[in-house]
């Protein structure tokens, strides 16, 4: 129970950090959104690491917060020893895919790439790990977020669907690699 409580605190702390960054961004004399991913721009490379922490408006961060909280909690509870490495790899790989293939003259921000990366990772665990705990996690995530996958991958103006796609693909790839490395 102590481990689960710590996982809740870590998940809530990460989401709280996003909110703090959002409110600090409102006070800055420049648009923090400009620090996001600018596809195929050398200056936009820094956005690969920063974009998941930046949100455009209140409804953007609100829409990401609960889902991110739940997926972080599931990821940490399943295997805390790899969780932060998984998240970092999703940020880098998903962000790089967005940087390479995102729409020109656009800026990609928000935690949804990480969200879809965690969905891809957690959905794939059951297949790659082939143990009961991972299968239950995969089924839970499928029932919670399986329907969101269909709509989030459709190109939509104003939404970084490339961030969703490459985050998801990064998560699936990382689930496969953690099995190959026999991390448990």
SSE map:
Elements: H1 2-27, H2 47-50, H3 58-101, H4 112-129, H5 132-152, H6 161-180
Helix pairs in contact: 1-3, 3-4, 3-6, 4-5, 4-6
Question: What does this entry look like structurally?
Answer:
It is a single chain. With about 180 residues, the protein is mainly alpha-helical. Helix content is about 70%, strand content about 0%. Helix 3 (about 60-100) crosses helix 6 (about 160-180) and helix 4 (about 110-130) packs parallel to helix 6. The radius of gyration is 16 Å and the shape is globular. About 40% of the residues are buried. The model has no long low-confidence stretch (mean pLDDT about 95).
Give a quick precis of the structure.
The protein has helices at residues 2-27, 47-50, 58-101, 112-129, 132-152, 161-180.
Fraction in beta strands:
under 5%
Number of helices: 6
Give the assembly state of these chains. single chain
Radius of gyration (CA) equals 16 Å
The overall pLDDT, averaged over residues, is 93
Helical content class: over 70%
Index terms:
mainly alpha; 184 residues
